[in-house]
Amino acid sequence: MIAALTVVIFALAYAVVLLSGLASLATSAAPISDPWFTIIELLIVAMMPAIVTLMAAIRLSSPKRSDPPGRWSLMLIIMATALTTTVHIALLVLRRSDLIDPRWHPWLLSFEWPSVPYVLDVIAWDLFFGLAMLCAAPLVGGTRFAAAIRVTLAMSGVLALAGLVGPVTGDMRLRAIGIIGYAAIFPIAAALLAFHFRARIRLGVG
Where are the transmembrane segments (predicted)? Predict the structure, then answer.
């Protein structure tokens, strides 16, 4: 329950900071700058352990935890976490150093397609995260919130995977579909999971 609430809190904070960063832009085409960029990076890094813990709780509380989807859900979210955490920590550190030739900054230190950080983050969130949600959805059961959680987790996964249409077609505006999946639908699933685990505790099933 605590992990689910933590995810919700971080997601709300992320939304507030992102909107503040967007509101500060002189033009819609300009990238988000500091301090908003740094805060967003830190929030993502801080939130990922809570997401892993939440996925582990879903698996451990499920009678289907030994089935392949149970193992895959945790493995995939760990892969997503390792990849996106590495990307965002690297950006936080390297953007403030002189280790990389400025000529390489657009490729190695920016979030403009097809930079290396952008490609890796798409793999982490649209692919690994999306598959993890689809694997986790069938694991949830036992309370009146379970059906809604299964639907929202599945929606989150499908939308995240649909975001891959952006990189495939070269129209990165379509990646917004995936962003809706993990930045809007998944926090709803996390909120429902908080109620779900609270209900399980009250029922004495942990």
Answer: 39-60, 72-95, 115-140, 147-168, 174-195
